[in-house]
Amino acid sequence: MWDWNYVVEILPELIGALQMTVWITLCAFVLALIVGLLLAFAARSKFKPISLITKGIIEFVRNTPLLVQVFFLYYSLPLITNLSIPAFYAGVIGLGLHYSTYLSEVYRSGIEAVDKGQWEAATALNYTKAQTWRTIILPQAIPPIIPVLGNYLIVMFKETPILSAITVVELMLTAKNIVSESFRAFEPYTLVGILFLIISYVSSLLVQQVEKRLNLQRGK
After folding, report:
1. Residue 101 in contact with residue 58, Cβ under 8 Å?
2. What is the pTM of this model?
3. CB-CB contact of 151 with 207 (8 Å)
4. Are 160 and 25 in contact (CB under 8 A)?
């Protein structure tokens, strides 16, 4: 049976773990944004070896389970390199690198949607490649894909329970620890589901609002 006294007792601990979960998600998302853009640039390189290698890496990462990648970073990499990565950083790197391959495709779609005339205008103005990307292409390519990037942020948030497998003390692992101490699973896991639902739903509403504003701006 549902015990409200027990809920009140464990809720602060779960809220604290939720803050860690959100922090991990944000750090991993920033990493994914940066690496994803670099991958998009590399995949478009006119130097074929770089382009092919980048596309191969993207396909490999996307077709390998996130859990396997996180396990490799935390458990296998130290055995190979003698470089031990703390669980938090291994989780952030694993989650960020995994989703950077997806964001690279989002960036690619945004870049390809820019009218070819913009590239020609940059050439006519004698812009360097850096100037072309910074002042013409990216300012037009990024805004339309912001809602998609926001959706991936929500997806990454919902993927964080995977990191409990490498002892990252996020929301799910905290709930497991509570259950192991109290032997009451109903309330902790239900609360975890509710917290994930609330954060994901509120985030999706914010993404929808951003998308509406962008559509209005493009319509003017």
Report:
1. yes
2. 0.91
3. yes
4. yes
